[in-house]
C-alpha cells in the first residue's frame, strides 16, 4: 500500500520549509518531481535544489516524471480540469508502480500550501489504487509572503478580506462585502477590468525567492508597470508565479461601483 504525503514547500525558498516538512521529506522512500517542459525547467530544478538542501536520508529516492499538460483551449473549464487531473493521477500511478512496486511512503513537493488553490489533494482522490493514507503538510502561503514582503497587514482592523482568482475578478468584478481582495492564479492581469479610482495594489512575483519583484502604488499608475514588468520577467525565466492585493480605500466606492 502507498502512503501519500503532500509537503507544502512555500514559495521556493528552502529556508521557509517547516521542520515538519523537512522531517516528512526525509521519511519518504520516494519523492516525485514533475517535469513541465523546457520553458518551466527551472521549477523542477528548484525542487531538486530544495531536496539537495534538506535531505539527509540517503535511502530516499527522487524520481522525475513528465507532467501532463492541461488543454487551456477547452471551452468547458471544469471538465477540462477534471480530465487533466485524471491524466496527472495516471502519471503519478505509473511513476509509483515503476519505482515503489511493494508500496511505501511517497512525497510530492507542493508549491505554497496544499490546501490553497492547489490541485494535489483533489488529484490524490483520483489515484488508483487508492493510497492507504493521504496527508497534507502545511507550507507558507504566497499571500503570507506577499504581506511580509510589502510589510502590510492583509486585513484592515475588524474587516474581512477575500482571496480569489484572476478569472473570478475578471468575470464577476470586485467581490461584494470587502474592501481588500487578494488575487491568485492570474495570468491575464485581471486588475485591468476593475475601476481604478481609490484602489491601491501591492504586487509580487517570485515572492520569497532571490528573483523576487515587488511593485505597489495606486492601481491607475502602477497597473501598467506591473503588466510590463510581468511580461519581461516571464520571458526571462520562462515562467512566473505572482500574486497581488487590491485595497479599496474607505469612501472611494461610489454608488455606481456598488451596483456594478
UniProtKB/TrEMBL annotation:
Catalysis: reaction(s): precorrin-5 + S-adenosyl-L-methionine + H2O = precorrin-6A + acetate + S-adenosyl-L-homocysteine + 2 H(+)
A molecular function GO annotation: precorrin-6A synthase (deacetylating) activity
Keyword S-adenosyl-L-methionine applies: yes
Record keywords, A-Z: Cobalamin biosynthesis, Methyltransferase, S-adenosyl-L-methionine, Transferase
GO terms (BP aspect): cobalamin biosynthetic process; methylation
Domain Tetrapyrrole methylase: 4-220
Pathway this chain belongs to: Cofactor biosynthesis; adenosylcobalamin biosynthesis
Entry superkingdom: Bacteria
E.C. numbers: 2.1.1.152
Gene3D superfamilies: Cobalt-precorrin-4 Transmethylase, Domain 1, Methyltransferase, Cobalt-precorrin-4 Transmethylase, Domain 2
Alphabetized NCBIfam families for the sequence: CobF (TIGR02434)
Protein name per the record: Precorrin-6A synthase [deacetylating]
Organism: Acetobacter garciniae
Lineage: Bacteria, Pseudomonadati, Pseudomonadota, Alphaproteobacteria, Acetobacterales
